[in-house]
From TrEMBL, chain A:
It comes from Paenibacillus faecis. It is found in: Cell membrane. This is Quinol oxidase subunit 4. The keyword Membrane applies. GO terms for biological process: aerobic electron transport chain; ATP synthesis coupled electron transport; electron transport coupled proton transport.
From TrEMBL, chain B:
Residues 1-197 form the Heme-copper oxidase subunit III family profile domain. It is found in: Cell membrane. Its main location: membrane. Belongs to the cytochrome c oxidase subunit 3 family. The keyword rRNA processing does not apply. Keywords: Cell membrane, Membrane, Oxidoreductase, Transmembrane, Transmembrane helix. It is an enzyme of class 1 (oxidoreductase). It comes from Paenibacillus faecis. This is Quinol oxidase subunit 3. InterPro entries: Cyt_c/ubiquinol_Oxase_su3, Cyt_c_oxidase-like_su3, Cyt_c_oxidase_su3-like_sf, Cyt_c_oxidase_su3_a-hlx, QoxC. It is a multi-pass membrane protein. It catalyses: 2 a quinol + O2 = 2 a quinone + 2 H2O. One of its GO terms (cellular component) is plasma membrane. It holds the Pfam family COX3.
From TrEMBL, chain C:
Pathway: Energy metabolism; oxidative phosphorylation. NCBIfam families: QoxB. This is Quinol oxidase subunit 1. Pfam families: COX1. It comes from Paenibacillus faecis. The chain crosses the membrane at residues 12-35, 56-76, 96-123, 135-156, 186-209, 221-249, 311-329, 336-355, 375-398, 410-434, 449-470, 491-512, 586-619.
Length: 94, 198, 647
């Protein structure tokens, strides 16, 4: 059984469930939008890390540097697209 | 063929390790693809026209079920790869099957959710908000559907051939894909549903 | 749908085109059958996974598209040559400038660049093929399916007519009710998927398949430029994928993304289009920088000045290229803050670009310069491109841009960037690497004649447009009155465009003549060049290198020729090569029909074709193809035959 359910996988799973519950708190507790968004951003980012490192084994294999660069570049372009679009389409008119 | 026996089977040939690397690159492109869909959604989310808003149509119950199913399936596909690395064929197949069934369950709940929306008069054509919602969720759902077909095919191949350079490599790549879909769902869960209900 | 809605009718020019399409198709089919070449075509070309042949097919397609797009350009110039001209009506003119733009950028510049990367990159890094040869063939056939789908639009259903940028609401079903913009969204989508796969393939190739000893900082500059280009492709094309999908949903399924009511936001299209569109400009320009770097270094007989700064400037350009897109719509009405931010990022791009210009000049400095045809294009590029760049900085200033926006000044600017940048570069690269592929050089005298005709005519065509723009002539006007005073400069530009056409005809004649009469090159290194691709035979054998080279520094072949460490020390061993496959071309054909049915919203056949695509994917998943091995004896025979020895 131990071989089939290695500890770090089980921990990762439990951790991701806990993080989902933490994120859920924004719906049930009264809080300002800024605090709510911060909780969502932090919990989602940690969840992504759990998947990348514990489940997807991004840090194994011989091309670690290239893989990190790849993900970093993708996140850079993704964030620029999201926030740049919000800037030019919505915030820029205020 | 040069084989490096210190590595897990799925990395062992040069071709295999190139494929895994190439798939990571593809996932980089997928990150940008979903980011763009999020950019569209976040730009249009309060442009509801005459249609309902997210607060009016979102229900937390089905969303929690979906989240639980997908998180668990991401866990089980991880276990499948873990068993594969130890050469347990039967356990791998069982975990694969559980993963795909959970994925199927997710898809079923999502389709029911879509049907409910449409019954409430919230369709793709109603408003910019709903268009962006349906296309964002639909793109993720289409990825899950493709994953189900792909995973089913892989199960057949593992059953037939056991763990070879080919099947181990394909299974590992499939697991990357599946974990990635889980990550995307976390962001949908947080920034579509929870933000909408906040 | 009636037949006269399906085919475009009522235009003599279109009837002529229909007849010529039918005649050309028949001629090809009859010719192939008569000369019994079907089997050859299938075995050697349609099913090939060899990067060199795929490269050649890309380049041939690009040349064909150059002529299609060129005819569009000539028609536009003919219409504008004199005031109140009646050659084309407004609708026809709209379709022509739309297809001219789309074809030149996506179906000419991109495939030409990708064709050269296919041919050159594996050779420059000492690899036997790309990382995923089968995927490479899929990329080509998806590009080709998209290109053909886009091209049939002008006889079947009507071409898109909302500009190559397809701005909403003009491109919406309300204002463009024909299927034209359906073609746009679907043909570009199919070709775009192919391009994305090329990006993945070449990053993996360059990062994972280099010959031993070739560290990143020993890579030839063209390979570096391709690596950076592919990174931009990888992260920019998904944005286009989404934008085109949303366009398709709006036009075919009634969604409300870019509509004028129900919360839709028409400018969101422009935003998404340029989030992809600006990086796209760098996708076609960076490889050009790489090509020029190789050529200038070779024909100055010096190593490239400032190698590291060249690399870093490209990396900086690739990042900056993602943060400047809003400069394409300064006049949209967002506030000073947004325009200010994007003005600054845009002007910042001029810095790394300027670094490159100076590096080329310093490479030339004190070099023993040889004026070959590729070198002439490279030398002409530097000043002409600088004019394009400087006018770009003028446009980058948001407040000044209100004056230039959407005028002929802008048209002149981007032609001054793209033609000496990309077009001159691909022609120069074509002349430069042609002997590697075919084993002989193109005739230099004819090449130089074509060069001078093209370079001079280019300036005659596009320089007047700067002044027309400053006088207030807007782009995309299908005619103008005499009282505007635009007549004389327009006439000069139109005369120049005829010169350009003559130049390209000379170029084609140059190729034809050289195929028949040019002396064969047996050295494999006709230019006395520096990088690895010149160290193997011309034409290159299918396995590229009999022995994998060992690299000890920058410009390893040059160093080896000068008495440095030898490149080839190992013994010949059997070589593993991938097998040919018919699946990519079949997948391309299915995608073509899938796209065609989608354009006309014929759902049942579209679903059938869609299932066909899934079946092809499944077939590939269940296939086990581990390639083949070329035995040592066969390699030895090929090698001695290529050295010109009697076997």
């Amino acid at each position: 059984m131990k071989k089939l359910f290695p500890l770090h996988h089980v921990m990762g799973y439990l951790f991701s469930l806990v993080l989902s519950v933490v994120a859920l708190s924004v719906v049930f507790w009264d809080m300002s939008p800024a605090v709510g968004m911060t909780i969502l951003l932090v919990s989602a980012t940690i969840q992504m890390g759990v998947q990348l490192f514990l489940f997807m084994h991004i840090n194994e294999g011989g091309s670690k540097k290239a893989l990190y660069t790849n993900i970093a570049y993708a996140l850079f372009v993704g964030l620029v697209t999201v926030f740049g679009t919000l800037l030019t389409m919505i915030w820029g008119y205020k | 063929m040069k084989l490096d026996n210190t590595l897990p089977l799925e990395y062992r040939s040069e071709e295999n390790s190139n494929r895994i690397f190439g798939f990571w690159l593809f996932l980089g492109a997928e990150i940008v693809l979903f980011s763009t869909l999020f950019a569209v959604y976040l730009t249009l989310w309060n442009r509801t026209g005459n249609g309902p808003s997210g607060h009016e149509i979102f229900e937390i119950g089905p969303v929690l079920i979906e989240t639980f199913l997908l998180l668990t399936s991401s866990f089980t596909i991880g276990l499948a790869i873990n068993s594969m690395r130890q050469g347990f064929k039967k356990a791998t197949l069982v975990f694969f099957l559980i993963t795909l069934l959970l994925g199927l369950g997710f898809l079923g709940v999502e389709i029911m959710e879509f049907v409910t929306y449409v019954h409430e008069g919230a369709t793709l054509q109603t408003s910019a908000f709903l268009s962006s919602l349906f296309v964002l969720l639909g793109t993720h759902g289409a990825h899950v559907t493709l994953g189900l077909l792909w995973g089913g095919g892989l199960m057949l191949q593992i059953k037939r051939e056991g763990f070879t350079l080919d099947t181990a490599n394909k299974s590992f790549i499939f697991s990357l894909y599946w974990h990635f879909l889980d990550v995307v769902w976390i962001f949908i869960f947080s920034f579509v549903y929870l933000k909408g209900l906040m | 749908m009636k037949w006269d809605e399906f085919f475009v009718t009522g235009e003599p020019m279109i009837y002529g085109a229909m007849v010529s399409i039918v005649v050309a198709t028949l001629a090809i089919i009859i010719g192939l059958t008569y000369f019994k070449k079907w089997g050859y075509l299938w075995r050697e070309w349609l099913t090939t996974v060899d990067h060199k042949r795929i490269g050649i097919m890309y380049i041939i397609s690009a040349l064909l598209m150059l002529f299609r797009g060129g005819v569009d350009g000539l028609l536009m110039r003919a219409q504008l040559a004199v005031p109140e001209n009646g050659l084309l009506d407004g609708q026809h003119y709209n379709e022509i400038f739309t297809t001219h733009g789309v074809i030149m950028i996506l179906f000419m510049a991109m495939p030409f660049v990708i064709g050269l990367m296919n041919v050159v990159v594996p050779l420059q890094i000492g690899a036997r093929d790309v990382a995923f040869p089968r995927l490479n063939a899929v990329s080509f056939w998806l590009f080709f399916a998209g290109a053909m789908l886009f091209n049939i639009s002008f006889v079947i259903g009507g071409s898109p007519d909302a500009g190559w940028t397809a701005y909403f609401p003009l491109a919406s079903i309300e204002f463009s009710p024909t299927v034209g913009n359906n073609y746009y969204s679907i043909a570009l989508q199919i070709a775009g998927i192919g391009t994305l796969m090329t990006g993945v393939n070449f990053i993996a190739t360059i990062l994972k398949m280099r010959a031993p000893g070739m560290t990143l900082m020993r890579m030839p500059m063209f390979t570096w430029s391709v690596l950076i280009t592919c990174v931009i492709i990888l992260f920019a094309f998904p944005v286009l994928t989404v934008a085109l999908a949303l366009m398709m949903f709006d036009r075919m399924f009634g969604s409300q993304f870019f509509t004028m009511a129900n919360g839709g936001m028409d400018m969101l299209w422009a935003n998404l289009f340029w989030v992809w569109g600006h990086p796209e400009v760098y996708i076609v320009i960076l490889p050009a920088f790489g090509i020029y770097s190789e050529i200038i270094s070779t024909f100055s007989r010096k190593n490239l000045y400032g190698y590291k700064s060249m690399v870093w400037s490209m990396i900086v350009i690739s990042l900056l290229s993602f943060v400047v897109w809003a400069h394409h719509f300064y006049t949209m009405g967002h506030g000073v803050m947004v325009n200010g931010i994007f003005s600054i990022t845009t002007m910042a791009i001029a810095i790394p670009t300027g670094v490159k210009i100076f590096n080329w000049l310093f490479t030339l400095h004190k070099g023993r310069i040889e004026f070959t045809t590729p070198m002439l294009y490279s030398l002409a590029f530097i000043p002409i491109f600088t004019i394009g760049g400087v006018t770009g900085v003028m446009l980058a200033m948001a407040s000044a841009d209100y004056q230039y926006h959407n005028t002929m000044f802008l048209v002149a600017h981007f032609h001054y960037v793209l033609i000496p940048g990309t077009v001159f570069a691909v022609i120069a690269g074509f002349y430069y690497w042609f002997p590697k592929l075919f084993g002989f050089r193109l005739n230099e005298r004819q090449g130089k004649l074509a060069f001078w005709t093209i370079a001079i005519s280019f300036n005659v065509t596009f320089l007047p447009l700067f002044f027309l723009g400053l006088k207030g002539m807007t782009r995309r006007m299908y005619t103008y009155s005499e009282s505007t005073g635009f007549g004389p400069l327009n006439l000069i530009a139109s005369i120049g465009s005829v010169g350009l056409a003559i130049g390209f005809i000379l170029l084609v004649y140059n190729i034809y003549w050289s195929f028949r009469y040019a002396p064969r090159d047996t050295t494999g290194d006709p230019w006395n060049a520096r990088t690895l691709e010149w160290s193997t035979h011309s034409p290159v054998p299918e396995y590229n290198f009999a022995v994998v080279p060992k690299v000890n520094g920058l410009d390893p072949f040059w160093e080896a020729k000068k008495g440095g460490p030898a490149l080839y020390e190992d013994k010949i061993e059997e070589i593993h090569m991938p097998n040919n496959s018919g699946q990519p071309v079949i997948l391309g054909i299915i995608f073509f029909f899938f796209g065609f049915f989608m354009v006309f919203s014929w759902w049942v056949p579209a679903i059938v074709a869609g299932i066909g695509v899934l079946v092809m994917l499944a077939v590939r998943s269940f296939e086990r193809d581990h390639g083949r091995h070329i035995p040592v004896k066969e390699i030895l025979e090929t090698e001695s035959r290529l050295r010109g020895e009697q076997v």
